[in-house]
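Ticket #4471: structure output looks truncated?

Reporter: J.K.
Steps to reproduce: submitted the chain below (723 residues) through the standard prediction queue, then opened the result file.
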Amino acid sequence: MISAEAMASTQAALRHFRVEVAEGVATVLVDDPGEKVNTIHPALTAELVTVLERLDRDEAVRAVVLGSGKEDGFVAGAKIDLMRGATDAGAMERLSRDGQAVFERVARFRKPVVAAIHGACLGGGLELALACRYRVATNHPRTSLGLVEVQLGIIPGMGGTQRLPRLVGIQAALDLILAGKTVNARKALRLGLVDEAVPPAVLLAVARERARALAAGELRRRPARRPAVERVTRLALEENRLGREVLFRQARKQVLARTKGHYPAPLRALEAIEHGYRFGFAKGLEREAQLLGQLAAGPVAKQLIEVFFASTALKKDSGVDDPAVKPRPVERVGVLGGGLMGSGIAYVTVNAGLPVRLRERDDAAAAKGLSAVAAVLDERVRRRSIDRLERLEKLRLLTATTDWSGFGAVDLVIEAVFEDLALKQEMVRAFEAVNPRGFFASNTSSIPITRIAEASAHPETVLGMHYFSPVHRMPLLEVIATGRTAPEAIATAVALGKRQGKTVIVVRDGPGFYTSRILAPYMNEAAQLLVEGASVEDLDHALVSFGFPVGPITLLDEVGIDVGDKVGKILHEAFGERMASPAALHDVVAAGRLGRKNGKGFYTYGGKEKRVDETVYDLLPGGRSRKPFSPGDIQERVVLQMVNEAIRCLGEGILRSARDGDVGAVFGLGFPPFRGGPFRWADSLGTKALLEKLETLRARHGERFAPAPLLVERGATNAPFHG
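Returned output as attached by the reporter:
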């Protein structure tokens, strides 16, 4: 037996764990010093081995509870810094094998180990919990579980590809691992991922009681209750070799269809799982480690990890350079306009727990806005991510009006009315008449905020908050500051955006700001290729092959051809001929083709499948006679226009940093994450090579390809945009 003095001595030597022993149960709390969240790293796992060895020798300890010393998190995953800049696949494989060995010790520990989970239990954190004999989680909204590694271009590397499918079944494990999904405690309980879900206040007490019962042989894990159809499916597909082959083959097809082959991690995860079922658990672990090493040292993981670090850094960024500037507390928010954007903004705000006052022009429009928010909440209830009581609590935070009542009490109002300067200026004046101290934010996508602020008696309170559609799904928020916007207003908008769950970048005011501005030449070049004879299919296919979620012509149909035309005119007026869109695009709009919203665009709508509407070619030079263009030529012309414009924005000070430019393009426009964003991609090509490509295109196609001055400067010495 280990004496109390010896245990006290052990505790004094520990840096990452706190250990308490009472009534035969050792409570081991992970508490990484100086960190807000716990992560898995070599120093922590080495110390865990020390703790287990001590507890193994202590005969007074009959069971162990493994929990967290952090207030709102279990273990958030492996320490990503370990993989940043990794180039040695062998070293990463060894790191994986070391972690597997530690978690295997947990799994084979002769005394039962119970995981007590509250908050984030992700990646390596869930792999640690999977190695425990029993898992109790809190039913708190902050509790989430998942193996999210594929989002970083890697795979679970500490046993997750082997333990999860054996616990919850192959199909359920594939759904979680291959897409990097997370689930709440309620869903985890249904899957059998956790054994119980309890209130946070009793988590450790329940975990200790279950640990005692396991040690006494009074408790056995019961398999999750599954519907009869699911049990039959598992028997047919998962519990025999031929069925598994069918399951894995189908999963592989689905992964390729979703990733277009750009992201190798899901396929490698599938390979590790299949290898383990074919050759056994131990061989599966070996293959898992090998594949992790290869992926971690590869280019896709490198770029995805850099995107992760960039977005993480933005979470700590107040949006202003002066650390003394603090955001004003926001307790109530107003939203002007309950259409697609306004209702979306209202939803993300009430979902953050803030009361919203929504204003519309009449009762019918107000009711439509309320219904749109309710519809999103209803969908979440159907998906069981919230229950009906939570839906009601969020909906109670939303009220609507057709006048200005209640707006005197809001701290910030977000305007989302029609894209018309006079109307937006009218909203500024009317709001300030009832609330001269509140901040006014416009959701405009193209009108300079400075022009809107001309109507304000307090221009320091006016700024932009540009959301992306659909608001509840798109992660980016672009906060736009004029030369007169107060730093406090910027910090307040950034803090609100983070509370709404957004990734926030701050940009300087100007026509199109950042995202709309760099999207315009991208779309214009695609339209120019159409005019030159490229087919709609070739254009969309080329850019999807490059890695964009949809092609530019599909995007134009979705956004609205008329909207694109209107924004294009604003930017053409501001920047001259290099931003001019082809005249034929105006002819398409004049012919009444607005895109999906009126069922008439470049594609057909209403049928069983979407197809190119061949009659649209009649409005273009060359008619229906199309010319072949290679995917590489299309990609180079269209993508380089976007990247060059992004570099102009950085050089002109529209962007605060290349980091913000990458995040804005990836999270707001779907720039391929595995390429890292416009600036990371430019660095991977080399600024000198990029400059040469643009000069070649300039000679061939004209001044719209003139390289940005900053690129000329960097390209002269091949200097990168990121250090």
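Triage note (M.O.): checked the attachment and the full token line is present. The two ends are 55 Å apart (CA to CA).
Status: closed, working as intended.
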